Amino acid sequence: MALPFCLQKLRLPVIASPLFIISAPALVIAQCKAGIVGSMPALNARPATLLDDWLAEITETLAAHDRAHPEAPAAPFAINQIVHRSNDRLDHDMQACERYKVPLVITSLGARAEINQGVHAWGGVVLHDVINNAFARKAIEKGADGLVAVAAGAGGHAGVKSPFALVQEIRQWFDGPLALSGAIASGQAILAAQALGADLAYIGSAFIATEEARADAAYKRMIVDSDSDDIVYSNLFTGVHGNYLKPSIRAAGMDPDALPVSDPSAMNFGSTRKPWKDIWGCGQGIGLIDAVDPVAVRIDRMAIEYRQATLALKQAQARNRLVAEPVAFV
Fold it and tell me: For domain 11-215, is the CATH number 3.40.50.150?
């Protein structure tokens, strides 16, 4: 199945994941101008009335960019909606998205048919994030256009499935748009996601350590100074398992290697520290992040790596064909 039109002409096959607290118009606009889908959670706009201002800023800035650079138009942007019944802002935020005809909506925490229908009514596309094959089926049955497969190693609330298992199970029955999330921070990893069967890579943590990200400077520096050994997987802070930076847990006065297990129905169980604000989420792919760069610089580097990896793979395939071909004797 062909990708929706809004995802067909990206500079790189990448969606920047919506980062709670961190993603705001400056980050989204920089990502879109650099040629990948930029995104943010609707709930980052506080108070709720701020969402209209942010959507106006994003749409008007990207439209002005396209007028000035018709040869290199910006990529579309996405808004993340938490569709769980506990989100009392959902109706308000969906109405704002409808007013601005948001091209791509990423839904989380419970697929809902009426939300998908609403997005389709204004011509938008819906991707739903899932951590297993069962949730993937439910999302498509309820009308989502595509999926974000959140595999092991992803930042924030992450699954435990290997990307090899998760993608191949989904691809057995679904040929629509599929993005893969989990420890992706380089051009090589983007190509690997496509080799597994995904259409796009879904990247978050690599964009926290950028100049445009609305994150604490210490958070950005911690990502630069850390690698996959500094990530811990715990459900203590929200009741849902996620990946967090160990140094931030130590700074909060806890031992990251001896965290208790939370009651899954409780929020902030066993801790007065706020997740995301004091306890910093992060994925396992940060070992390559060695500086706090502008978004454009980070994406330029990924584009170079992607081209190099594509060429290297083609060369390896050519060598393998030569080795595999039978020798003709005369």
Answer: no
